Each structure stands twice: as structure tokens, then as C-alpha cells.
Amino acid sequence: MIRTIEKAVISLATMLLLAVSSAPATARSTPRQAPPRVDSALNELHDWIPDLRSNIDGCRVLDFGSGAGVQAVALAENGATEVVGVEISDPGRQAGAELAAQRSVDGRVRFVHRIGADERGHFDTCISLNSMEHFSDPQGVLEEIRSALRPGGRLLLTFAPPWYSPYGAHMAYFTSVPWVQLLFPERVVMAVRSRYRDDGAQRYEDVTGGLNRMSLAKFERLVSAAGFEMVERRYTAVKGLPLITRVPLLRELLTSRVTAVLQRPLEEALPSPTEGRNAGSEGTRATV
Cα-atom radius of gyration of the chain, to the nearest Å? Predict the structure, then answer.
């Protein structure tokens, strides 16, 4: 009896979500924004990190999750003395290398699958744009980034949306229902999503690109566990609602973006070449 009732509830919830979703033929198959051009690739970072230039100019920069290399090339063209893009995708690294050569910055930009042991403690700055909510092992990623930075080196990161925000499920391409991840069971969302994506995902973690349910509390906990100092943290509220990001519970539900500047402690000793895990295993940005 209980199983029959559960099955009926799931069926009803699925029909309800389908009723408030786009027809598969009209749903977006790609992100709304066009692929960034080199000359505008840093615009989003500049928007959220006003002192970005001072952390790039004359610096050795790690672009963690460099994709097709557009941002890495832009970093070099905007004053970085060296840029290393970490990207697990072979086509992404190849595209980045070709773009760097086309823009004549290939002497200062290169792309790797993972950070080499000899480069630990080497970088002044690391950039992570819209990736933190996708890493399957975010704590491992943060620890690897920290080990790659010199003492006093900084990680500049911004990502959106966090998990409990209205569109934290990253399902807006087929439904405009806010908090769909809270209002509907996961199996319902995945069942409806299967009409728009064919990756066979049964959980949020399984979707193309991955979703790690990165809440504000989880982010704060991971940053602390990874050994970073929080230099600056800014939570952007939905529709700019004043002070809402300071209210427990409401901040989780109504924060649309997380921006932070994290620093490796100055007094921390540099790692030996054999310390730590291999880096870069989670370095790809992806569209869900």
C-alpha cells in the first residue's frame, strides 16, 4: 500500500513538473550567452572582483578549469607574466593552445591536465569562475589550489547559483519554477530532465558537468577545512534584497552568487614536491 501511494505521488509530481516546463522542442539546448571572446573574457570577473587587475598584472596565474582557454589567453593579454590553464578535457587544452598561438601569447600561456609537483607553491593568483558548484571533490580541489599557491597567494573565485538559491538546481533551461530542487523529489526532476538531456543522470551529481549541492554553509566549511584565510567574502542577494544575506536560513534561499578572495597563509611552509595529490582532476567547467 505504501509503495503504491508513493508511486502515485511521484507520478503526480512528475505530471505537475511537466506541466510547468517547456516543451522539449523549445527548451534551450545551449546556454543563453554566446561563447566569450578574448577581449571580453574577463568582464564577468571584473564585475565581481573589482581589484582583479592588481591580482593579475605581473603575476603567475593559475586558471583552474580553463575550458577552451579563452580566459587564460585574456589573462596573459591583461598583464599576467605566466598563465597555466588546468583542464581535464583534451579538446579544451588543444583549443587553448591553438588560441594562445593565434594571439601570440603561447610563450606565456600553456595548458595542463594537472598541476605538476614542481609547480607547488609557484603561483601568485588562481582564478576559478563558475566552477565551484560543479567539482565532484571540491575540498580536494581547494587543497590542490592552496598547495599550488605561494604563501600569501590568492584564490579569486565566484560562482552562481549556490544550491539552495531559486535556480540552484541549474534546471532553468527547461523550467522556470524556482527552488525546483526543494519542491520536487530528485527522481522527479531527473525523470523530467531526461526529456531534455540524454546523459542518463539519476542524481544531480550525475548530470553532465556535475552538481555538488554547494550551499553557503558547505562552501564556508570547505574553505576552512582546506586551510585558506578568508580575505573577502561577498554574497549577492536575489534582486539585491538588502541585508538578507546576513539572515540565517534566508541567506541560503535568497543568495544568488558567491564571490570570495581566499589567501594561503603567509606563514605556511611550502610543500615538498612529493606532498599532496595530483591536481586538475576536477578542472572542467561544464553546462548542465
Answer: 20
Distance, in Å, from the CA atom of 274 to the CA atom of 62, rounded to the nearest integer, reads: 20
CA distance from start to end of the chain:
37
C-alpha cell at 178: 524556482
Average pLDDT over the chain, rounded to whole? Answer: 90
Tens digit of pLDDT for each residue in 165-212?
999 999 999 999 999 999 999 999 999 999 999 999 999 999 999 999
- Residues β-bridged to residue 183: none
154 and 55 Cβ atoms separated by less than 8 Å: yes
Coil, strand or helix: which one is 41? Answer: coil
The C-alpha cell at 23 is 516543451
**Coil/strand/helix, residue 173:** coil
Q: How many residues does the chain have?
A: 288
Whole-number Cα distances in Å, 235 to 58, 127, 167: 29, 18, 15
Please tell me whether residue 47 adopts helix, strand or coil conformation.
helix
Alpha-carbon distance of 209 to 131, in angstroms, equals 9
